[in-house]
Amino acid sequence: MSNLKKRKRVEARLKIYGVASITVALLMLATLLISISLNGYSAFRQAYFKISIPVDMSQFATENGSLSSKKLNLYDWDGLVNQSFNSIFPDITKRNDKRKLFQIISSNSGYDLKQIVKNSEYSIGQKNMVVWLPLSDDADQYLKGRFNIKVPEEDRRLNDKQIIWIDTLVAKDIAKLKFNKTFFTAADSREPESAGILGAVVGSSLTLFVTILFALPLAVMASIYLEYFARPGRITDFIEVNINNLAAVPSIVFGLLGLSVFLSTFGLPRSAPLVGGLVLGLMTLPTIIIASRTSIRSIPPSIREAALGLGASQLQTALHHVLPLATPGILTGTIIGMARALGETAPLLMIGMVAFIMEVPNSFTSASTVMPVQIFMWSDSAERAFYERSSLAILFLVGFLIFMNLIAVILRKKFEKKW
Amino acid sequence: MSSLSKTILSIILLYVTANSSLLAREGDQISIVGSSTVFPFATIVAERFAKNTDFKAPVIESTGSGGGLKLFCAGIGLDYPDITNSSRAIKSSEKEKCTASGINPVEYLVGYDGITFSNSKQAKKFSLTKEEIYKAVSAKVMTEGKMIKNPFKLWSDINPELPKVEIDVLAPPPSSGTRDAFVELVMHSTCKKLYKMPKKGADGYKENCSSLREDGAVTEAGENDNLIIEKLAANKDRFGIFGFSFLDQNNDKVQGSMVDGVSPNMDTIADGSYGVSRPLFFYVKKEHVGVVPGIQEYADYFMALTKSGGPLEAAGLIPAP
């Protein structure tokens, strides 16, 4: 009797321990997500100012009446923006004050204006345009209240005058926080207000696409071979041990392999998603092989034997019967491998994907970077506005992962068969 | 597999193979590697260069000075970088390697970087000598002509005029260029000048003159300088070692201690009176000029932006006088 009571108590304790560990894990996850969200949510908005710019568009016209991009490139857009901005504060005339004034608008605003003109439908006859351009990162942080104005003036990035100017702009309702579209449409930049995540998202997508294209077929073939065709023996054991060992090799080693094989021997380009994908593919290969083999092995032998008994060849049995049933398991293994590949930076360091890249990659061989690298580089930047941007990028990365897992769940549901 | 996914697959495979530039990088893009200290400045230059000229945006990797020069000197051709950034001058061994590959590196001095020994703004500003810093962080110190294990626990143990506060310093990891420069400029110079230690390479030089203490008074922080600043703001008795550009960006949170009586700022670093500063360079592969478009223009553009009052100075680079 007492024995039974004791056993029940032990069981209850075990249950409590289990609940406690789940609670701790969930609490940690929540703390992480909440603190990152609190740091990052402000990056959804960016300080912009509205400005009316007098510019005679007819000077950029070609003979057939369209805009000439050569003429646009030669024009002094920075000067134009600065002049127009100065006209909001006509009483600022001293050189030094002007310099301070221009520090509160983005140093890329001239370029941004040029892009607006290039991409939009300003007609040649137009003589004036009203646009919203970004304020500098310091002004942006000030408007978001992330700026300590209590310290002495000489220790601040913005002096008293600049703060008064920004306050004036806000009071006149020509400066405000708006949705930060740039963050979702641009690649990296050294100015926080011009930096975006799109380049890294595209880079990650291209890289992962190569990874899956390379690793999945190889892994499935390898596991089918090992499960169906390989004769048990020393060589098979040797291969098996090696695959299991490869799954535990530190990722940087795959980077070194990629450097010496893909870059040095085959002469593939540095910093390219193609090479990154191949390296990450090599890295995830063992994971997917192990998962695929387990999942193939778990298919009841009766199904296989029935197919063989009815006269199907090994190939037909594998492709028509076993593989479709094993798909959910293979997909789970693939997603685990892909998730690891998505968060990986170390092997990419060796093949040059840890780099500053200003253009959204447009092919598998153009220079690009990936999301974790982008986060790493922003969190390492001195400008404080990058802090919130790296937090938002982390949320984005987590979102990307959830999206990938969601696809896996949907596919798994679709292929799942009961017997 | 459905016919749709087959079509998609084949289209993508076609796209990959049809991309003719599979071999080597695209020839119109400058490739830059090298120092992580010069990296933030080089990226500013590259961005402006790409936005204000018709050349393609250069790709810049942060590989460290040594790693950059190794890649740079490996050979000529599109497989190798065109420019490398460096937070020290090229070594003679590296130069020989370059020459062996037929490369003539052209040196450009872009300016200086100071290394600061900083603490929270809420604490008192310290005035230290290099020897005092050495005594606070070195694994071994000299007492009565002998090197012994560092016994100092409080700042007042080193110099009675300093406050009675525990020594607690955050140092960059050995992989960082800031650490190398700190060791060379503060520790080695103390060893050589004050202790008359034998030159580099001699027995015991490394543990006597290059090792930081491991008894808890010095903590190695990660490569991330922003993290060091956060930690300094949280604990006012702590000190951190990092580059001047980070001090410049965070003047409201941290302050740089005076070293040998001089505060770190733009002027004192530029004229050399602040003793813990180092020159920053980049090296151009002359053989690639004219092959990859824009190299010479990039170099000239970089030098133009280093002028006093320019955007690089605003980012914390100290212009060469």
Describe the structure.
The complex is a heterodimer of chains A (419) and B (321). With 419 residues, chain A is mostly helical. Chain A folds into two domains: 44-180, no CATH class; 198-415, MetI-like fold (Orthogonal Bundle), CATH 1.10.3720. Chain A has 17 helices and four strands. A three-stranded antiparallel sheet of chain A has the order 2-1-3. In chain A, helix 1 (2-40) packs across helix 17, helix 9 runs antiparallel to helix 14 and helix 11 (251-265) crosses helix 12 (273-297). Chain A is elongated and about 90 Å long. Chain A starts with a helix and ends with a helix. The mean pLDDT of chain A is 88. Chain B is an alpha/beta fold. Helix content of chain B is 36%, strand content 19%. Chain B contains 13 helices and 13 strands. In chain B, helix 2 (39-52) crosses helix 12 (295-305) and helix 5 packs across helix 7 (177-193). The longest helix of chain B is centred in the middle third of the chain and has 17 residues, at 177-193. The radius of gyration of chain B is 23 Å and the shape is elongated. The relative contact order of chain B is 0.19. Classes of the chains: A mainly alpha (419), B alpha/beta (321). At the A-B interface, strand 4 of A face helix 1, helix 2, strand 2 and helix 10 of B. Strand 4 (355-356) of chain A pairs antiparallel with strand 2 of chain B.
